[in-house]
């Protein structure tokens, strides 16, 4: 119960908020209430050796013709212990009774607010006490009695057999919730102002007076709504007279807290995960596979941090990378770089920074790549990219990628206004180019009225095209004058054949927003001289894609047409060494096409274009290893591709054949698409809220659906 992997999920067809969930006693069934006032009955049923949560029925409570919506707006739900009835409290104060599992309304059993008010003193009747049913509670010892609580403070005990009020309780504060004592002799009412009251239930029907009326003050106050957001965890038998709770579970707005009631001071219980649900929005994520066990006991630096299991105090070294390289005509208009702290800094155990690289201009870092064996880290911004040797704490080189038209890249962080201006400017430029080309095709023939009519129609079509962007816009080549062409989208390390086919060498590849790919040869000294000799770099190749679409992925295939493995995995025998005998190939993935080049000549070999009519764009791409679910002896490497339409395409390597397409994320869910992360074995994650991940699998071998059984 509560263990990882034990879960059942049900998805409503309606895209509405779930307001309430109630279990049907002892039935492996539950009822959900949505914000559209619909009720849904779910059952846990075994199928193929596992229990599945299935929706059995749905129902919407309807009032008589002409009645206001409040007459049937459900505010409280009580599944009766008979397992056959559901009591529904409403905004109007009426309580409807429906039969389970059919959801048939039993009209003759409706508890009206008029019937309740017959036993309430007249001076309370004028206070409209029965306007809204806040809570319904069944008597723990007598299933023929239910406690009805109204929002304005009135509480009544209703006899289901005789259809009458046996007791009434007059509260003075807005009611939030009710709880019975186990023996049914008294109950507690919780109120909006933080107070709670104990009420006795006598057998002689005398008007009860509250036993206690308390407001919890003091340093140990648990700041929660007692009525709606806590439960106690107890191991007592049902027959025990009193509860002996060991913990209290508090559901706050943004986290789940468990309080230890057995330990002095009521400390919080440490949760088994890193951060509380909804604690803060997730802004970046990366999945790491095949982590070696030695990682936690050694110091596979990560970026410019190293792992230390003890607290430490040391000076963080500082380096600066000038990406503009003193080029004339460029002036940064954004914020200044952050100031570094002088002297030693104390860090807690864990990953501790030991060197800081600051880019100049201080723009957002848009891409990173780490090679743990070579002790190198590459970084990119909207102005260029650089390579840093974190063993010698030395900058190897920087490369400016700015185009003369990239003035927006110098105005600071990207903004919605700047993007809108750029989009409008590009759209009108596209309109002008298309108008000129259409006139050329017409050859200047025809009378003036025909030309005027054609131009008017084109203007209308062009404006429609702008409104439909980007999903339905046709793909066309981008101009080199478009802004942010120097924006570095991807960085990639590879040991491959870059200069000639006889010798391979370390290399660094970079892809930009303007469709340019840069390749640098690296000279990394051997281990025995690595500390003393510097790493050298020299630009060897530069590729310009004809359509100038942003480069989102770069990959090198070895002699077996297999993607180069991670060096860390090879070093720990988690992956096979690459084939360095046969010829290598370069795969460049842009937003609009996949293209394979031969190495070292970099000549085009084959390509795959995405569908132009749909305006399809690649958003995320990663190599995934798909293993057979029937045998461990077979697996294949393919590309997992997420598009801006929210679908996932599986493309074969090295022949770039579309294998299958899955709809995964709604195309309107921009944040979900932007946050998607693939794993190396055909799974993935994407955000369904600012702090919640949805997990999916593309592989038949690695299923993410939990297979659990409820007896």
UniProtKB/TrEMBL annotation:
Compositionally biased residues, Basic residues: 432-443
Region annotated Disordered, chain positions: 432-454
Domain Lethal giant larvae homologue: 239-267
One GO cellular component term noted in the UniProt record for this chain: cortical actin cytoskeleton
UniProt keyword annotations, A-Z: Exocytosis, WD repeat
GO biological process, one term: exocytosis
WD repeat spans: 11-52
The family this protein is said to belong to: Belongs to the WD repeat L(2)GL family.
Source domain of life: Eukaryota
Protein name: Lethal(2) giant larvae protein 2
A Pfam short name: LLGL
Record-linked PROSITE patterns: WD_REPEATS_2
GO MF terms held by the record: GTPase activator activity; myosin II binding
């Amino acid at each position: 119960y509560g263990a990882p992997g034990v879960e059942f999920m049900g998805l409503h067809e309606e895209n509405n908020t779930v307001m309430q969930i109630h279990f049907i006693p002892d039935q492996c069934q539950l009822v959900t209430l949505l914000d559209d006032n619909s009720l849904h009955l779910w059952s846990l049923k075994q199928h193929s050796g596992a229990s599945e949560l299935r929706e059995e029925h749905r129902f919407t409570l309807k009032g008589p013709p002409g009645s206001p919506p409040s007459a049937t707006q459900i505010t409280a739900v009580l599944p009766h212990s008979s397992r056959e009835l559901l009591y529904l409290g409403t905004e109007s104060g009426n309580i409807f009774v429906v039969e389970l599992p059919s959801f048939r309304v039993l009209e003759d059993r409706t508890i009206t607010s008029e019937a309740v008010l017959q036993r309430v003193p007249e001076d309370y009747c004028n206070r409209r006490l029965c306007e809204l049913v806040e809570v319904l509670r069944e008597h723990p010892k007598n299933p023929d009695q239910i406690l009805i609580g109204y929002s304005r403070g009135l509480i009544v005990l209703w006899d289901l057999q005789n259809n009458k009020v046996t007791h009434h309780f007059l509260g003075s504060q807005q009611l939030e919730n009710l709880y019975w004592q186990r023996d049914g002799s008294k109950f507690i009412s919780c109120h909006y102002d933080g107070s709670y009251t104990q009420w006795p239930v006598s057998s002689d029907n005398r008007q009860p007076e509250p036993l206690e009326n308390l407001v919890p003050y003091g340093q140990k106050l648990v700041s929660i709504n007692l009525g709606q957001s806590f439960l106690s965890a107890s191991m007592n038998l049902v027959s025990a007279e009193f509860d002996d709770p060991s913990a209290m579970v508090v559901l706050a707005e943004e986290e789940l807290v468990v309080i230890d009631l057995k330990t002095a001071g009521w400390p919080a219980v440490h949760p088994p995960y890193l951060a509380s649900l909804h604690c803060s929005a997730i802004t970046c994520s990366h999945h790491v596979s095949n982590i070696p066990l030695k990682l936690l006991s050694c110091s596979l630096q990560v970026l410019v941090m190293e792992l230390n299991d003890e607290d430490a105090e040391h000076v963080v070294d500082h380096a600066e990378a000038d990406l503009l390289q003193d080029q004339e005509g460029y002036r940064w208009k954004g914020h200044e770089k952050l100031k570094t702290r002088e002297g030693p800094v104390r860090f807690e155990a864990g990953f501790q920074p030991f060197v800081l690289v600051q880019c100049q201009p201080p723009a957002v870092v848009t891409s990173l790549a780490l090679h743990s064996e070579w002790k190198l880290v590459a970084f990119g911004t909207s102005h260029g990219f650089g390579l840093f040797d974190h063993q010698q704490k030395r900058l190897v080189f920087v490369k400016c990628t700015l185009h003369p038209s990239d003035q927006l890249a110098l105005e600071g962080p990207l903004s919605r206004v700047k993007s809108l201006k750029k989009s409008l400017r590009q759209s009108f430029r596209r309109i002008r180019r298309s108008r000129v080309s259409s006139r050329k095709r017409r050859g200047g023939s025809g009378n003036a009225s025909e030309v005027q009519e054609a131009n008017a129609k084109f203007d209308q079509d062009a404006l429609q095209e702008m409104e439909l962007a980007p999903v339905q816009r046709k793909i066309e080549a981008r101009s080199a004058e478009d802004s942010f062409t120097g924006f570095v989208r991807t960085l990639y390390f590879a040991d491959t054949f870059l200069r000639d086919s006889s010798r391979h060498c370390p290399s660094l590849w970079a892809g930009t927003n303007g469709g340019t790919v840069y390749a640098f040869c690296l000279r990394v000294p051997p281990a025995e001289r690595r500390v003393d000799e510097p790493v050298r770099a020299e630009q060897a190749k530069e590729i310009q894609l004809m359509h100038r679409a942003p480069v989102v992925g770069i990959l090198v295939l070895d002699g077996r047409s297999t993607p180069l493995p991670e060096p860390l995995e090879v070093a720990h025998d988690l992956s096979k060494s690459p084939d360095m005998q046969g010829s290598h190939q370069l795969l460049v993935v842009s937003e609009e096409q996949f293209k394979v080049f031969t190495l070292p000549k970099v000549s085009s070999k084959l390509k795959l274009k995405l569908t132009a009519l749909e305006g399809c764009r690649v958003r995320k791409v990663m190599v995934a290893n798909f293993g057979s679910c029937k045998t461990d002896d077979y697996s294949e490497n393919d590309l997992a591709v997420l598009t801006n339409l929210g679908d996932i395409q599986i493309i074969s390597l090295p022949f770039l054949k579309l294998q299958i397409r899955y709809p995964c994320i709604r195309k309107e869910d921009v944040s979900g698409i932007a946050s998607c992360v693939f794993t190396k074995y055909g799974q993935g994650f994407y955000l369904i809220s600012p702090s919640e991940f949805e997990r999916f699998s593309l592989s038949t071998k690695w299923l993410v659906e939990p297979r659990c059984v409820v007896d």
